[in-house]
Amino acid sequence: MSKLAKYLNRHIVGNVFERPSIIQTYTSDRSVLQYTPRFIALPETADDVRRLVRFANQLAMRNFRLPITVRGTGLDKTGAAIGDGMLISTERLNHIEEIDVRGRLVRVQPGITLGSLNTALNLHGLTLPIDADPRATIGGLIANCQSDDFGARHGGIFHFVEQTEVVLASGDIVQMLPYTTRAIDAKMQTTSAEGTLYRRIEQLLDDHAETVTERTMRPFDTAGYANITRVRQGHVTNLLPLMFASQGTLGIITDVILRVNLAAPDRRSMVAVLRDTKALLRALDFIKDLEPAFIRIYDMRIFEIAATEGSRPDLLEQSPDDGWLLEVGFDFRKGKTERKLQQCVNVLPPGTFAVTETKDNAVDFLEFRNALLSFLNSGNDGERLAALDDVYIPSYKFAEFVQDAQVLEETLGIPLPLFGSFATANYSVRPTIDCTSLSGRQLLMSFLRQYSRLIVKHGGSITGGTPEGRVKSLPAAQPLPENEQQLYHDVKALFDPHNILNPGVKIDVDTKDVLRHLRTTTRTGLITP
Predict the structure, then answer these.
(1) Does position 1 have pLDDT exceeding 60, yes or no?
(2) I want to staple 340 with a disulfide (CB 3.0 to 4.6 A). Which of 75, 326, 330, 424 is the partner?
(3) Which domain covers residue 155, as residue numbers?
(4) Torsion angles phi and psi, residue 336, rounded to 5
(5) Apex 233 CA angle, 227 and 235, nearest 5
(6) Helix, coil or strand: residue 361
(7) What is the CATH number of the domain that holds 328?
């Protein structure tokens, strides 16, 4: 294999490594899985990516397997940022190429992180309003299309991407943006790779028209290539939606044009502690109509556990120890934000503990996120696993779901305090399981099966907040209809006929292979939401 590495290094500007000490740092993401790649490729340019992909495709045509996995900063929780072939890291494709302040547009490479981008944008009074880990790359945000807390008000990453440049499995490069029927007709008359792609996608949409229509009726689910429903809208065809939640299985993004917002003039929040679930939901019914930037809820047990590490927020010193913590934020003009916060307080039951953010206590409000970090990193008996994060639970079923989750806690013998976004109805739990032991891995599988059944029972979706990757396919609690599976297989075959782009992710997941790659060691480093 060293001959292949030397050959690739002669033909790209970047680097290809096969040293075990380098490869070891790329064997895991934030999931419960671990895969060892053969090579680590660090491209410097889009042409580097094209050459790497074209090389793997040519090998596939000769029946030699070298699958490609694309990785940003390795924050994926579903096992989609790791693989056993060539792992292409976008860490050097991390530049801001252009900022159009007047047009509120920015052109970036996929490896730039959300934090770095917003730091640069803030200098111009602009922002990309995505509530995600600041270490997440723009390419990763598109590939996973994770539901973020700001999404209900601002639309999420899908709303802000105007155009992308994508390297296909053949090594050809295409621009993905909306095209009119006339423009598409002109492209389909050509013999280029782009023309072939559009001819085939138009045929696929016609062949599966009924299935696409049926899929449109199930919006809270990112399984498969759900955004096929958005490709053809009226007289406009746009392949860009297919890149969202595709997890690197259809193409590799090398350039992105984003539309950004003016920075929020006044972002402030309030917190309250409500003792019972029904009281919480009654208050939230009013609050959600006030157009908050975010609505987060936390089981108070999270702060009880964090307190054992010395991380109980000072603002909660006088609050009850049980129930739910509600955090609501607004980002309107100062006067309007003030009125909205007061309206939130007014709809709370009499006697409810509530605190509104001011200049004097603004720093104290940061402690809520810090308390969550303390909770996630305080498990002494095992790791708090990101096993089934970001699942969709309908608001009208939330109370019943919580009751059944309490029963599941008693059955499994592990606490499952819930946290997440009421605005997007996406929630997470972090079971404390010792994955280093056989009994622990068996407990993990039992949790995956029973928790996923609970989600489905209450009309939720395992893939409501993030796509399936590998991990979310393990429980098999939500099998897709056969006609829908066929549609997704045809989409994959159209974009990646030799199955070299992240095979075994989303489509044709090999459950036995995934189980063989369950981590047997605890994850090192900081465990984050």
Answers:
(1) no
(2) 330
(3) 96-262
(4) -70, -40
(5) 150
(6) coil
(7) 3.30.70.3450
Under the banding of pLDDT at 50, 70 and 90, the label for residue 366 is confident
Please check whether residue 305 lies inside any domain of the structure: yes
Predicted model pTM: 0.95
Find all residues with CB under 8 Å of 162, minimum gap 6, and list them: 105, 177, 257, 258, 259
Integer-rounded Cα radius of gyration of the chain: 23
Cβ neighbors of 396 (< 8 A, separation 6 or more) are: none
pLDDT bracket for residue 525 (50, 70, 90): confident
CB 408 within 8 A of CB 416: yes
| 426-428 β-sheet, strand order | 353-356, 268-274, 324-330, 294-299, 419-421, 426-428, 391-392
**Domain count within the chain:** 2
Map tokens 């970036």 to a residue.
Answer: 108
Hey, CA dihedral for 446, 448, 454, 457, is it positive or negative? negative
What is the C-alpha to C-alpha distance for residues 176 and 241, in angstroms, rounded to an integer?
Answer: 9
- Scored b (16 or more CB within 10 A) or e, 90-109 reads bebbbeeeebeeeebbbbbb
Which residue in 506, 401, 516 sits closest to 76, CA to CA?
A: 506
Token representation of residue 208: 């599966």
Reading phi first (left if > 0) and then psi (alpha if -120 to 50, else beta), residue 125 is in left
pLDDT in tens, 110-128: 999 999 999 999 999 999 9
**pLDDT confidence of 526, banded at 50, 70, 90?**
confident
Query: Are residue 272 and residue 298 in the same domain, yes or no?
Result: yes
